[in-house]
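Good morning,

Attaching, inline, the backbone tokens for the sequence recovery test we're adding to the shared suite. The designed sequence is right after.
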């Protein structure tokens, strides 16, 4: 069975640590990057099935990262879920090419269901 790889990029370490723990308990292989500057290169290298990305981060914003992922033919099958507490975040995320928007604070069951559906698709 293929290992389900998830990449999480959020500048909030509390969120990434919690998500990393939850997904590892569910037998996912998880890579976390808190500095968005390094996210794209890591995604290219590990080729995850799912990327969870925060929308508003310093240096490289989530929407710029999403656009870069979605414009890369080698990453065309990567499912991108964008997270944000911003009111206009959903429109920004979807305009950038995200597959789904997850409002913060999010429900863990919801996020597990979204990722589970994405890796089994």
């Amino acid at each position: 069975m293929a290992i389900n790889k998830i990449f999480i990029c959020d500048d909030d370490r509390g969120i990434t640590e919690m998500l990393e723990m939850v997904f590892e308990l569910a037998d996912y292989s998880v890579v976390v990057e808190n500095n968005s500057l390094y996210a794209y290169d890591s995604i290219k290298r590990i080729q995850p099935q799912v990327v969870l990305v925060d929308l508003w981060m310093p240096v490289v914003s989530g929407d710029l990262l999403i656009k870069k992922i979605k414009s890369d033919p080698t990453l065309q099958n990567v499912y991108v879920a964008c997270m944000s507490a911003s009111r206009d975040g959903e429109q920004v995320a979807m305009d950038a090419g995200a597959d789904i928007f997850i409002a913060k604070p999010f429900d863990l069951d919801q996020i597990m269901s979204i990722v589970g559906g994405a890796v089994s698709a």
